Amino acid sequence: MGKTVHTEAVRDLFEAILTLETEEECFNFFEDVCTVNELLSIAQRFAVAKMLKEDNTYLEVAEKTGASTATISRVNRSLNYGKDGYELVFSRMNLDKEKKDSE
Q: What NCBIfam families does UniProt report for this protein, alphabetically (predicted)?
């Protein structure tokens, strides 16, 4: 049986994250919780996902983000066969952007 992320500790972490209200609060919390390298790695994966979603090639993604082909492949697998978490976030970010643009 594989590892699960559905633990009480992870639920507590997500509950804490859901209390954050501003970008500054996010910076402060994540800088306390993560090492600089952990946070930069997560941000890099998100940037890779955005670029892949925009139909950039692996080479373009690697050049722009500095991510390895293994990381790019892992993110691509999540985009194609994952739990649609990236898709949910991207669609909400697009809705927020459209809302701001129309104001």
A: yecD_yerC
pTM over 0.85: yes
Residue 102, number of CB atoms within 10 A of its CB: 6
Longest dimension (CA), the chain: 50
Angle at 22 between CA 18 and CA 27, to 5 degrees: 90
| pLDDT tens for the 103 residues of the chain, in order | 568 899 999 999 999 999 999 999 999 999 999 999 999 999 999 999 999 999 999 999 999 999 999 999 999 999 999 999 999 999 999 988 887 888 8
Burial of residue 62, with CB atoms counted within 10 A of its CB: 0-12 exposed, 13-18 middle, 19 or more buried: middle
